[in-house]
Amino acid sequence: MIYLTRKAEFSASHYYHNPEWTPQENQRVFGKCANLNGHGHNYTLEVTVAGEIDDVTGFVIDLKLLKDILNRQVLDDFDHRHLNLELPEFSSLVPTTENLAVAIWHRLARNLHPARLHRVRLYEQPDLFVDYYGE
Known about the structure:
Elements: E1 2-14, H1 23-30, E2 39-51, H2 63-78, E3 81-82, H3 83-86, H4 97-108, E4 116-125, E5 128-132
Parallel strand pairs: 1-3
Antiparallel strand pairs: 1-2, 2-4, 4-5
């Protein structure tokens, strides 16, 4: 089994808000992150795929294909976007780093054949990251 990791970066804005809570409860739990005007982050995304080396091509997956899928399924929608307002996943889901990693997994997992998605690692800042290995 070979593991291959592709790295990408994107910037996005968001706010933390649970619509079932009062403004005061959102403020208490989420602090400054509850500001409905939002705030931004620069994210680093690592996508790791796993598979066997193809005898003919020598690839687990063509790296150009992996890059194109990552751009089309994730970066084109996430980069320089307000996640709460522009992505359907976050119209009612709090766009935490954890939820972003899961959403990215769901966008990629079915599109990487012949390889399979092994891990999504998302850095929100240099010293904070989330690893997601699927369900």
